[in-house]
Fold this protein.
Amino acid sequence: MAHQFFFNPYILDNLPAPVAGFDVVQDLSEPRLRMYITSRGVKTFFVRKRVRGKDRRILIGKYPETDIEDARGAVVGILENAQKKPLVRRKKITFKQFLDLYLENKVRREEYSQMKLVRAIKRHLVELFDKKIAEISSVDAQNVIANIQGRAIAARMQELLQSVFNYALDMGYVKTNPVARLPKIVQERRVRPLNRAGLKRLVNVIEKMDDVILRAAFLMQVYGFISRSKIFSMAWEDLDFNHDLWKDWPLSDRATVLLQDLPQDGQWVFPGRGGMHLTDPRTAWKRVVQQAGIPNLTMDDVYKFLMRQVVWASDKEDLRVNMNTLLDDLLEPSM
């Protein structure tokens, strides 16, 4: 059961973040109003409602961008709208036309991530593009998913189709979701091959690289506690060395020193070809991990390993201290 109290700014501002997963709290003034608190300190208002036989969690907005009173006032209208049956639209549109609406209205990603998603859609779902969305059957969806190589990408495309058709159902373009009846794809959980000894070997190999930009970009995978795509797309204008920040993200001491030593003669911290930033130096990374004796290691593995190890703190300076402590513990030679 959710912990209940009267929502007010002082209490919500000082709610502790859980170590993992999320916590839920409930407002006594408006009991239908609840809030998620994630392990990263993100707080989001939401309401629960059983709609057409299914339990739905409807997000209202993040706190403090959404005021407490505004969230309370929005509850009644949201619940009333959730009860309304979707309009059945007579106008038929193609899957591609509706997919464009879905991407515009429902997907919120950074530019690089959005482009990656669009490329995956064009590669794997093109067979459905010209079909009327109301005429796509479970067999059509299953055939498309069955032709995708790799369980992981097939599972993601099935989840995407499920979400697209749920939105089409809410918008009244379809009467049922053809993907809902498909069996869920079982994925084998990948074992990430990195440990402390491997991380030291990795850093030692990277430090010997001749290419200054690639060496710095790869070291930032360790020092930055940031995902690969965000590191490669760093712009100088987003760095604040006076406060050790990249945008709103704290930088470890090692990351700050590393970045300050790079030539600041362009837009991008890690420039690539054609005036763009670095994108995917997979060949160079493959050579590095081979030399480090971890041939199956990905840059995402490094990020996940470090984020599991670091002690999370909502205060930026506390988090930065925890980053520094972890890196010293992992990389300093043992006495």
In short: The chain has 13 helices and eight strands. Strands lie at 3-5, 22-27, 34-38, 43-51, 54-63, 239-240, 245-246, 249-250. The mean pLDDT is 89.
